[in-house]
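Quick log. Single chain, no ligands specified.
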Amino acid sequence: MTYIIVILITLILMSIYVSGVLADNLYENERVDLYAKANIIAELMPVNRELFYDEETVENVKQVLSGTVMRAVVVNPAYGVVLDTAEDANMSGRIFIRSILKTSLEGGQAHAVSKSGQNTNIMAVTVPVKQGVNITGAVYLFETIDSIDNMINSVTMSLYVFSMLISILIGMLSFGMSYII
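-> predicted structure:
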């Protein structure tokens, strides 16, 4: 009996490790993708700040984000929204303050994972918008990562079930072997 418990604990610990590595890898891939798109959007911003509302700029940004559920918000150094890709909740002209935006408005890049008001997990990145050496704003790019969380939970549950089945099989085999002897 002790033998079965040791095997079960080993398999469960291995499952936890595998799901942790999977989660880290998936989150890192998503973060890299967000940073890549955010940097492309930052490069698309025109030199003249008044042209952030330009139809061509908005169309180019939407093209970069096409096929994704990402939302981009571009702010000026005073945290005023100058471009928002959301059609239904456009925040252009409003103040948009997020703690990670401060890092980008100082010239760095930042990322964060948080819960939204709708109880979904959101991954966000910010990158500075530069014109030469001057920082003229920041790009805040975010998306929900619930699909990643659901996949990790599904794989973890499958690993736990597999561990239980292996333990039951080993238990039956060892019980059968001890009965024969």
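Residues 51 and 57 are 8 Å apart (CA to CA).
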